[in-house]
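Following up on my earlier thread - several people asked me to post the actual chain instead of describing it. Fair enough. Here it is, all 44 residues.
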Amino acid sequence: MSAKDSMKDYLAQHPRMIGVLFTLFVLLSQAGTVVAGTNTQVGP
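Reply from S.P.:
Thanks for posting it. Predicted structure:
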């Protein structure tokens, strides 16, 4: 069994985790944008 199949089975058994993972990815992408936007000085 591959990792892809096991993850698919896990999410099928725990559908609420789909929303949790989606929210986590959204928050991480937002945090990355904030960090990238606050560091505008490049170089010394």
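Helices lie at 3-13, 16-38. That should answer part of your original question.
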